[in-house]
Specification:
globular, mainly alpha, 76% helix, 3 domains
Length: 188
């Protein structure tokens, strides 16, 4: 198929996804994600890639349940005011109420990362990736924690996985290079 036709179809599909969102249901199971992840794989347009990533995050963030979404918003506000204990508590409540909602796990993993509770964060990242294996935010967090723990091989694998999911991940390639250098130093 002609590359111009493929690009036109991709743009039309992304436009439809953004214009006609699924009003009542969103999360890692949302069917719009398949189209958006396809764009991450094929686009070379920086504005399109940024919009696509933002759309993916928006879909992940919305559970489709008013009570869960309200708790997610309260937790986000707590993070913004640096009340990480409150944020963790609220995300834990989200997880208890909606254990199949990957973004609850991912957001709590992020809060635990900020609190330097890396083991707790890793547990939550694992659950996030069970529910949404394409979660590039969780994979990035995994790479960061493994690098901090000086598991350079594991961190490299995580960032390589990130590039498989999102070939345009901004800092993955430089991080891989630094990690390879650290791995070489530790082998001496």
């Amino acid at each position: 198929m002609n590359i111009k036709i493929v690009n036109l179809i991709t743009h039309l599909l992304v436009g439809m996804v953004l214009i006609f969102p699924a009003a009542s249901f969103a999360d890692q199971k949302d069917t719009r994600l398949d189209v958006l992840f396809g764009v991450l794989q094929t686009s070379n347009s920086e504005p399109e890639l940024q919009q696509t990533e933002a759309s993916i995050w928006q879909i992940w963030y919305e559970s489709g349940q008013q009570e869960i979404d309200a708790l997610m918003e309260q937790a986000r506000a707590a993070v913004q005011t640096s009340d990480l204990a409150q944020a963790e508590s609220l995300y834990s409540e989200v997880i208890e109420m909606a254990p199949e909602f990957s973004e609850g796990w991912n957001r709590r993993a992020t809060v635990r990362y900020y609190q330097q509770n890396f083991e707790g964060s890793l547990d939550d990242i694992q659950q996030t990736l069970i529910l949404e294996p394409r979660h590039f935010g969780a994979v990035w967090g995994l790479g960061m924690i493994l690098g901090w723990k000086q598991d350079f091989s594991g961190a490299i694998i995580a960032f390589e996985r990130l590039l498989e999911i999102n070939p345009h991940a901004r800092d993955a390639r430089p991080r891989i290079e630094v990690l390879k250098q650290e791995l070489a130093k530790s082998a001496v």
